[in-house]
Amino acid sequence: MLLNTEIGSEADVLRELRKMDRIEEALLVYGAYDIILRVESSSMVELKQTVTWKIRKMDYVTATQTMIII
User: Fold this and answer.
1) For residue 28, what are the β-bridge partners?
2) HSE-CB for 14 with a 13 A CA cutoff
3) 3-class DSSP assignment, residue 69
4) What is the per-residue pLDDT for 58?
5) Per-residue model confidence as pLDDT tens digits over 10-42
6) Long-range contacts of range 22-29, CB-CB < 8 Å, 24 or more positions apart?
7) How far is Cα 14 from Cα 63, in angstroms, rounded to an integer?
8) d(CA 28, CA 10)
9) pLDDT the model gives residue 70
10) In a domain, 39, yes or no
């Protein structure tokens, strides 16, 4: 998953993401996005709940791009 954050909030968002269940990896990146993370789940329903209700609702997260690996 790729995330954009409000300017200057990248480290704070990263710190909070790393505390969440199902987040296997979260890294700051340079370029079009601010953070890249790997989310693991046992079902699409669980993934949707994590992305929609936890990650996208975080303060300072402005945009996300989800890519599903099969």
Assistant:
1) 35
2) 14
3) coil
4) 97
5) 999 999 999 999 999 999 999 999 999 999 999
6) 22/46, 22/50
7) 14
8) 7
9) 82
10) yes
Residue 54 lies in a domain: yes
Asked if residues 1 and 36 have their Cβ atoms less than 8 Å apart, the reply is yes
What is the domain-level CATH number for residue 14? 3.30.70.920
Residue 45 vs residues 6, 11, 30, 40, 62: alpha-carbon distances, Å? 28, 28, 31, 12, 23
Establish if 70 belongs to a structural domain: no
Tell which residue, 11, 28, 21, has the closest CA to residue 53: 21
Domain residues for the domain of 61 are: 2-65
pTM of the model: 0.91
In a domain, 46, yes or no: yes
Number of structural domains in the chain? 1
